Amino acid sequence: MEWSVKFSIGIDTIDNQHKELFRRINALATAIKEQRCKEEIDKTIEFLEDYARVHFSEEEKHMLRTLYPGYVEQLREHSQFLTSLADLKLQAALPRVPGSSYDLSAATNQVVVDWIVNHIMKVDMKFGGFLRSRGQQT
């Protein structure tokens, strides 16, 4: 998946974080194709943990500041992603047998692609529309 301006919500820090998420998931997809899953998967899961902590905090801060009416929906979505990430982390902690890095990489890729398609492109875009309607892009 490639980043495009159509994914922009209008807050530079959040948009830049989304761009980095796209970059990282593309790196994982490349590693899967090149059969380098073992080297990439742990870095990707570690990145996703840091990303979720920083990014969700940033989004939620902006939503509270702007009195965004979809704030509770965002919290629910963020919680669901964190649950999926915790499941991936548990899988990553298991002893790796041949092929398990590929399976874990594919599962991680799917979780993040689903997140991009269902959250960024739908839920976050609602927030962007809200900001634009109020002339509050920053």
What is the secondary structure topology, with strand pairs?
Layout lengths: L11 H22 L3 H29 L5 H23 L6 H34 L5
Compact summary:
Helix content is 78%, strand content 0%.
Strand content: under 5%
Series of H and E elements = HHHH
Task: Tell me the quaternary state.
Answer: single chain
Average pLDDT rating: 85
Question: Based on CA inertia axes, which overall geometry fits?
Answer: elongated
Largest sheet properties: none
Proportion in helices: over 70%
Let me know the number of strands. 0
The N- and C-terminal alpha carbons lie at a distance of 25 Å
Question: Features of this protein?
Answer:
78% helix, mainly alpha, elongated, 138 residues, single chain
Structural notes for this entry:
Helix content is 78%, strand content 0%. It starts with 11 loop residues before the first helix and ends in a 5-residue tail after the last helix. It has helices at 12-33, 37-65, 71-93, 100-133. Helix 2 runs antiparallel to helix 3 (71-93) and helix 2 (37-65) runs parallel beside helix 4.
